[in-house]
Write a structure and sequence with these properties.
Helix content is about 70%, strand content about 0%. The protein has about 550 residues and is mainly α.
């Protein structure tokens, strides 16, 4: 059982632009300090019950799972989709070339998932999470129906492009929502579930789509997906409240109570019911607002949350790339996920050529990818939090974002190994378990490495985490889009061994980039924060502060 306290130095709580350097353990008791500090307001998301907060985390992770489920799943039956729109290979002499045209259905969706975040993020920051969640998922459900019913190439392509834009909202909303409702010391563990869902959605979609294709037409994939996505949309509409909270205007606990053992929230019956011994200070009862009703919590508009201009909210993700730590974390995400895109764009012909597999058999190989993703939840989430806490204890209770970075050392080994196993296995036609182990390890590395690097940057720039996630998601999608075009020509020119060997070297080099940030990250963050370009476009207004 972890003992925590809400007691925090008032001056420490008021510090702004601290770039993730803060006290996380009490100087005298060594208890974990709750950051951000929960207020006395029952509507503060940090005061919701732990069970409800975990429900929301699972809901948003399920949502991102289904977004990638349909974005990638039907690609496993790309030959059948091509036959529908261009005719079967027996009557279509340009069938192979037409497969490349059909591939646009999936590559453009992946691209727009990232590019669409540039559209959604200013709205999310300005008007809150709930209106974007509801509108984007209604649109996504409609696009699933549209794609399944399309009878022309143009209509299908248009539906997939709009689907990508709609799905992009979930990719950036999930980490923001998790940051809204969980404390700093919990964040890595919960974010592990999000990054797992991000990766597992691709694997799950390919597995299920392959199985559906055994007895049904490819359109059935869309009807099954519509039912699953529609169910998620209903849950979002009726059970997902606004999680953005104006902490700077909130009712804060009184400073008159100084005894650290004043009250245990869990025993007192407060809404903040964690399985930890949590302490808070007292506040004036008449100053505490009433809990809003369930009906009120379903409203789509709850006000404006920042006075920053739409232009600044739009341009900040682009300028973020000039910060070394953000650029490195973006390259880690783009490299690991991009190389999975490279494998996915080539996996069907690769397994067919090497092992004479049917689409559904190839799809079942992605069960290994699912297992790898689930194993990485612990190694990328809880392990990172644990390592960071050890370093915090040794640093007299002061937490630095870099303290979780050693956890990424696992992926320094597994990511290159995954690509080597896949390339060598397919190239030499080794037993099918060899490239399949590669699928498991690359999925493990995506979740593990991406979670560590993403949480590291969010901890560093928490008030503008939304724009930060957009930076990484948009670049990741653009990189994956390019790889989807160049993977097959690359394999044809260099062979599986040469192409995936080069990818292994690139991934290893990107992940080894963690070393300078672990050693000098604090100095790098503070030095680059004073750059003129960063001052103008990245520095945030005071109304964006979240108490970290």
């Amino acid at each position: 059982m972890v003992r925590t306290t809400a007691q925090r130095d008032p001056e420490d709580a008021k510090k702004m632009h601290n770039l993730g350097s803060l006290r996380l353990r009490h100087l005298d008791s060594n208890q974990i300090i709750l950051v951000p500090t929960p207020t006395a307001d029952p509507n503060d998301p940090l005061n919701w019950s732990k069970r409800y907060r975990w429900y929301i985390a699972v809901l948003v992770s399920t949502a991102i799972f289904f977004c990638n489920f349909l974005a990638a799943g039907p690609s496993i039956v790309i030959a059948r989709v091509t036959s529908t729109f261009f005719g079967p290979p027996q009557t279509n002499p340009s069938f192979v070339a037409d497969i490349s045209k059909t591939a646009y259905f999936f590559t453009t969706t992946a691209l727009m998932q990232g590019m669409g975040t540039l559209f959604w993020m200013p709205l999310i920051i300005k008007y809150g999470r709930r209106p974007v969640y509801v509108s984007s998922f209604i649109l996504y459900t409609a696009c699933a129906v549209w794609s399944g019913a399309s009878t022309t190439y143009g209509s299908e392509l248009a539906s997939r492009i709009v689907m990508g834009v709609a799905a992009g909202a979930a990719e950036v909303l999930a980490p923001l929502t998790i940051s809204d409702i969980f404390f700093l010391h919990e964040r890595g563990t919960v974010m592990g579930i999000y990054t797992c869902a991000l990766s597992a959605g691709v694997s799950g979609g390919i597995i299920v789509s392959g199985l559906i294709s055994i007895h049904y037409d490819w359109r059935m994939i869309y009807w099954v997906s519509t039912a699953l996505i529609g169910a998620s949309t209903i849950l979002v509409i009726f059970t997902f409240p606004e999680t953005m909270y104006r902490r700077d205007e909130s009712i804060t606990p009184s400073d008159t109570q100084t005894d650290p053992s004043t009250m245990d929230i869990e025993k007192s019956g407060s809404e903040h019911r964690d399985n930890v011994d949590t302490e808070v200070t007292s506040t004036s009862a008449d100053a505490v607002p009433e809990r809003i009703s369930y009906i009120t919590s379903l409203r789509l508009y709850s006000g404006t949350y920042t006075q920053e201009s739409f232009w600044k909210l739009f341009i900040r993700p682009v300028v973020f790339l000039t910060l070394p730590s953000v650029l490195w974390a973006t390259l880690v995400m783009s490299g690991t996920i991009g190389f999975l895109v490279a494998i996915s764009s080539n996996v069907a012909p690769a397994y067919t050529t090497a092992y004479n597999f049917e689409p559904w058999q190839t799809g079942l190989c992605f069960i290994a990818a699912l297992i790898g993703s689930f194993l990485a939840i612990f190694c990328g989430g809880h392990l990172g939090d644990w390592i960071a806490d050890i370093h915090t204890r040794r640093n007299d209770g002061i937490r630095e974002p870099e303290m979780r970075l050693p956890a990424i050392g696992i992926s320094v080994i597994t990511a290159p190994l995954a690509l080597i196993l896949y390339g060598v296995g397919i190239n030499n036609k080794l037993h099918w378990i060899c490239p399949t182990m590669g699928l498991a390890l690359i999925s493990f590395s995506i979740v593990q490495a991406t979670n560590v690097s993403l949480v590291y940057t969010i901890d560093s720039y928490r008030p503008v985490a939304g724009e930060l996630v957009v930076t990484q998601m948009a670049f990741k999608s653009a990189f994956g889009f390019l790889l989807s075009f160049y993977t097959n020509p690359w394999v044809e020119k260099s062979g599986y061994l040469g192409a995936y060997g080069a990818m292994a070297g690139i991934s290893g080099a990107l992940l080894l980039g963690v070393i300078p940030f672990y050693l000098f990250g604090h100095a790098i963050r503070n030095t680059t924060w004073r750059w003129p370009l960063i001052r103008k476009f990245v520095h945030w207004d005071d109304d964006r502060e979240v108490g970290e």
